[in-house]
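call fold target=Bifunctional chorismate mutase/prephenate dehydratase
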Amino acid sequence: MDSVDSKDAEKAVLTKLGGIRDRIDAIDNQILGLLSERAHCAEEVGETKREAGEKNIKFYRPEREAQILRRVTELNPGPLAGERVTAIFREIISSCLALEQQIKVAYLGPAGTFTEAAAQKHFGQAVGTLPFMLISEVFREVEAGTADYGVVPIENSTGGVISHTLDRFVSSPLKICGEIHLAIHQNLMNKTKDMSGVTRIYSHEQSLMQCRDWLDRNYPGVARIAVASNAEAARLASEDPKSAAIAGENAASLYDLKIISPHIEDSPNNVTRFLVIGKEDVPASGNDRTSILISTHNGSGALYHLLEPLKRHGLDMTRIESRPAPDTHWDYFFFMDLNGHISEDAMQAALAELDDEAEYIRVLGSYAKAIL
């Protein structure tokens, strides 16, 4: 191809790219106009609720949000993946909600933890977040009304249940208003991206457990030190060149650390489930889960009598955990997750029978199942 042909081909490519960019600009203008229109609608919703003089106005409607996100995911024609579409629309919803009310969300901190990432995934970036060092503190802040909602971990697919969270529900009046599933990717990081002089690796005990095989293979002689959080591990590594940390990408960015090895978790399906806690009951979204707390005296067939009404009424129990009842010997609380909403007839009938059978029963909440 001579130089004339080459210049003509280059010109044709530039002309085509220019046309595509013009289309992108026009589409962006349309998107911006539609975003403004949606934001105005959100403002109208807030004004209408205030004019109605409702007491304890609920601006945040988790069941409505879940319905929107499920609908746009189902309608998504591609090529964007459903998870990306959900993330985009969640930020739109979050920003529009902030025009109605600034929501405050407490979470298990400090900043840079996976719990912070879970809170951002569920509520978006437009809410105010408040980090606390203990799960009990998150509960207390929501109970006191300092925060509207809280986000706490409840279980990990490889590490199991978080007993501190379960135990708080025994004494707390708070309800479960939602759940979040977050894929957990552990990353080895330090200041220099050089492990030759590193003598210790900091991380949360659960993260160390989730990466145990990888660490055994790659750094068997390096001390592993458990700390309160992955963010704390990253902070310590940022102050000591002989240390490294295992944490998420948020922590690496927050403390200016270099990721040496990404995704070092032993299980490729490492997911943590988080709960959103609040004070109100959540209406049905169409795809819900109900969590209950129930207790019975230890005796022959005690657990069978709790489970039998669930089977008879066709309820699907997805999880059960037992915890010792406080101030007793050999009595237990059971935490159960059931598919369905408290408003459904089958759920109502089963719970009525359990109320007669159990020593104690409380519905912790019915809420929309986690979306992507």
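return ok
The radius of gyration is 25 Å. The first helix runs from residue 3 to 51.
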